[in-house]
Design a protein that fits this description.
The complex is a heterodimer of chains A (about 350) and B (about 70). Chain A contains three helices and 28 strands. Chain A is mainly beta. Chain B has a single domain, classed as G Protein Gi Gamma 2 (Irregular), CATH 4.10.260. Chain B contains three helices and no strands. The chains are: A mainly beta (about 350), B mainly alpha (about 70). Chain A: Belongs to the WD repeat G protein beta family.
């Protein structure tokens, strides 16, 4: 290409870019206007007539001790009794939460196992972290688990979160490479990749009671995205947080999501209204939120903080109900058991606690 | 440059889709959220407690044993 033709082509591209950016700005303004139009009242105003939650009878019941470093992730088994945990120590432990016994322990050839998840059948676990991989283990004897492990997928940066969307056959992962990916377990094939975030993906969650085609992701770009798993497109995007979004969770109704962020707030976004409907924060809370989960009715939001506490929020009235004390370091993960009878919390104090 | 253009086109497509989605009033969404919670509160053991501590699988076993 001649020099003049090259500069003409550059000028042309610059012009196209400028017009695209202008269009993007206009679209963002329009989007904000559309959302604002329907913002008639606050959720907490509507919930004023509800009675306050006077008392919550949640007590510490079990302490699971055995990890030799920070607990980074836990997941309840579908049997509502077992818990899998992953740690900075490179170990994966399967616990009987009723008895606190360790049933299995596997050492991985990596430290910082940042994510672990039970398969829907309860017969497999997926995990990974700083190794950038998602690995599946069958739950059998310890020797067999190590021998029969299988690497399903690899990201170009750490894997921060994983989840089985529909069956034991597929795994959805989120990564520090700012993408999410859907993998076929059997073939290790990448079925769909999800591009859109401009920062590390920290958390994902699947929409409940649906066909399993919608998921949410939270990222260090301060955004939460709702994705269509089939098309790979972002369907809705939610902003508002001032810092990294560390945790995202679907409301049990499936039409709202909660987020937890380094900006020390949790937020509730309604997908039908397409906007933020509540912020859970207090001036006295200055530490980041690592993990959130709903009680089965969606009334309570449990949030694990860097100040070693778990805060319980009334999601309708936007008030704090109470605090759970016990951990001696950052609370890294919180999860309500599948039947909603117990809460598990994992911490940098090397322990997992069960509250009920 | 071409890659940037393509990336920006994708972003614009997403924004166009988002502008076009149907929405409801916040008041209506709030009522629906509240309704869902009301309908499920009685099954929410962490909120409403157990009907009896005996059915709590994580309760402490009684320390008194019949000898």
């Amino acid at each position: 290409m001649s020099e003049s033709a090259l500069s003409a082509s550059n000028a042309n591209a610059n012009e196209k870019m400028a017009s695209l950016l202008k269009e993007a700005e206009n679209l963002k303004t329009k989007l904000e206007e559309e959302r604002q139009k329907l913002n008639d009242v606050n959720l907490s105003n509507i919930a004023e007539r509800l009675e306050q939650i006077a008392y919550v009878n949640i007590k510490p019941r079990k302490v699971l001790k055995g990890h030799q470093a920070k607990v980074l992730c836990t997941d309840w088994s579908p049997d509502k009794r077992h818990i899998i945990s992953s740690s900075q120590d490179g170990r994966l432990i399967i616990w009987d939460a009723f008895t606190t016994n360790k049933e299995h322990a596997v050492t991985m050839p990596t430290t910082w196992i940042m994510a672990c998840a039970y398969a829907p059948s309860g017969n497999f676990v997926a995990c990974g972290g700083l190794d950038n991989k998602v690995t599946v283990y069958p739950i059998t004897s310890d020797e067999e688990m190590a021998a029969k492990k299988r690497t399903v997928g690899t990201h170009t940066s750490y894997m921060s979160c994983c989840i089985y969307p529909n069956s034991d056959q597929q795994i959805l992962t989120g990564s520090g490479d700012s993408t999410c990916a859907l993998w076929d377990v059997e073939s290790g094939q990448l079925l769909q990749s999800f591009h859109g975030h401009s920062g590390d993906v920290m958390a994902i969650d699947l929409a409940p009671n649906e066909t399993g085609n919608t998921f949410v992701s939270g990222s260090c770009d301060r955004m939460a995205f709702i994705w269509d798993m089939r098309s790979g497109h972002v369907v809705q995007s939610f902003e508002g947080h001032q810092s990294d979004v560390n945790s995202v969770k679907f409301h049990p109704c499936g039409d709202a999501i909660a987020t937890g962020s380094d900006d020390s707030s949790c937020r509730l976004y309604d997908m039908r209204a397409d906007r933020e409907v509540a912020v859970f924060s207090k001036e006295s809370i200055i530490f980041g939120v690592n993990s959130v989960d709903f009680s089965v009715s969606g009334r309570l939001l449990f949030a694990g903080y860097n100040d070693y506490t778990v805060n319980l929020w009334d999601t309708l009235k936007s008030e704090r109900v109470c605090l759970l004390y016990g951990h001696e370091n950052k609370v890294s993960c919180v999860q309500v058991s599948p039947d909603g009878t117990a809460l598990s919390t994992g911490s940098w104090d090397y322990t997992i606690r069960v509250w009920a | 440059m071409a890659a940037n253009l393509q990336q920006q086109r994708t972003i614009n497509e997403q924004l166009r889709r988002e502008v076009g989605i149907p929405r409801i009033q916040v008041s209506e969404a709030s009522m629906l959220l509240m309704q869902y919670v009301m309908e499920h509160e009685s099954d929410d053991c962490l909120l409403s407690g157990f009907t009896s501590q005996k059915v709590n699988p994580f309760r402490e076993k009684s320390s008194c044993n019949i000898l």
